[in-house]
Prior knowledge:
Blueprint: E1 11-21, E2 28-39, E3 45-46, H1 49-60
Antiparallel strand pairs: 1-2, 2-3
Residues 3, 5-6, 8, 11, 39, 41-42, 44 line the site of zinc ion.
Amino acid sequence: MICPNCDQNSAHIEKTTQSLKVFGKEEYILIQDIPVTKCDSCHETLFDAQVVKQLDEYRKNPNLAEEKPIRVARFPKVA
Ligand SMILES: [Zn+2]
């Protein structure tokens, strides 16, 4: 598919996982299988407007997500 950034026919849809901060809280939500457009030519990663809207929905209403235990690691400093 055509990349909206560089107009090359080198973009494709991938699924990605991201953690997002809940609006106004020190709380995070892990969102899996987010469709994202990735380009092999310019290496741009783009979310379409509908996806951004849905992500904001989760950030406003974290109760839409299932509660699960999650392990959190902070990557050690690399010298
Ligand atoms: Zn591109």
